[in-house]
Amino acid sequence: MRITRFALAGITALVGSGLFLAPAGAAPNWSGLDVANYAGPIPAKGGQQIRSVDLDPALSIPGAGTAKRVLYSTTDQHGKPATSTGAIFVPKGPAPAGGWPVIAWAHGTVGLGDTCAPSASPRSARDREYLGHWLSQRYAVVASDYAGLGTPGLMSYLNSVSTAHNVVDSVVAAHQDPSLQLSKKWAIVGQSQGGGAAVNSARWATEFSAGSGLDYRGVVATGTPFKIEEVVKNVGPASGLPGGLSSAATSYTAYILAGIREANPGVDFDSVLTPRGKAAAAKAEVQCYAQLSTSLAGQKPTDFLTAKVSTVPGASAALDRYMGTPTSGYDRPVFLGVGLKDTDVPVQSSIALAAALKKSGTTVELHQYPNAGHSGAVLESMKDSTPFLARVFA
Q: DSSP labels for 133-191?
């Protein structure tokens, strides 16, 4: 049975839509692998493939010769063994010498309900083009859903360490299928929520994949949230979000606080929720992004709080642990792309992250796209990220 979920409604603009375009009310297509209530054994070690099935062709992407839906072991937000699903796409044709180099795709915001799992619905037009591009460049794509999204438990939204485990373990698990002919070389690519997941996964990629023989090479992240925990701390009845952001912010706050509350049961986040906030939280636990955005239309983060989040004892420290992105300890190059017309994630997020990474000695590229918004930066960045990945894989 799924864990009860509570949250605030209020930061959709800060994380950025995953552009997950499943029709409202559409049933998920599990490709014969429905594990939302999985109760079987879970290996204690992350990255172990538990089951694999052919992905329904309707859910594949352009250029894929083989497409799988998989269930694998990972680590959740409580440091316990858990499960995640994901999809694996392999290009058409014979594998190159040494196997297909791998890109781990970290998806953006889709919601927290099991039916929101990306591997159980068609990809958006943008993501089909983007992921299809990487297949055309002769990379295999491994796309985690993240633990709790289509599997038991709550997906720990924007949880730095938990999501890093989920992404890294997806690649380790994919390599257990010799028929896919995957190279040990791999990189990470992510957008929005997934941009944050990609950067955090990059920080722990080598450590979390230790003993697997994998060869991590670098990361590409666009629309990346950074220091959003500082924004969340200061949201209250009379203090909202930074100016210039879209109404998407309302849904993202709900998702953030749903995750932070579940991951930290000893911190009383409920104590600052208004009745309207609790009602919005209940919706956030089960509704996918498009539906939640409609449900919360016209509402603001200030409607859901009786006091600033930071006034809750232990809340600030919990947010730092949960959402904080390290700015040192990266052992491979980092690519950051930002659209200067982004109204979902503050533009300064990527700029500040790049500066902090450079200060710590990390090899980092920051690419700014003056005419791109939050989603537009994904495709716009390909002209720079494509040669970047070619270099790090060389």
A: HHHHTT-EEEEE--TTSSSSS---TT-HHHHHHHHHHHHHHHTT-GGG-EEEEEEEEEE
Indicate the domain borders of the chain: 17-224+327-393, 228-322
pTM: 0.93
The CATH architecture to which 17-224+327-393 belongs is 3-Layer(aba) Sandwich (3.40)
Q: Please report the pLDDT score of residue 3 as a whole number.
A: 31
pLDDT in tens, 156-175: 999 999 999 999 999 999 99
CA 58 to centroid of chain Cα atoms: 23
CA dihedral 318, 319, 320, 326 (to 10 degrees): 130
For residue 233, what are the contacts with CB-CB under 8 A and spacing of at least 6? 308, 309, 310, 315, 316, 319
- Cα(203)–Cα(197) distance, integer angstroms: 10
Chain mean pLDDT for the chain: 92
In sign, the C-alpha dihedral spanning 283, 287, 289, 291 is: negative
Residue 258 has a CB neighbour count (10 Å cut-off) of 28
Scanning the structure block, which residue is given the tokens 């709790």?
A: 148
Asked if 49 contacts 144 with a C-beta cutoff of 8 angstroms, the reply is no
Unique residue bearing structure tokens 């930002």: 338
Query: Quick one: tokens of 301?
Result: 């983060």
The whole-angstrom separation of Cα 163 and Cα 255 is 15
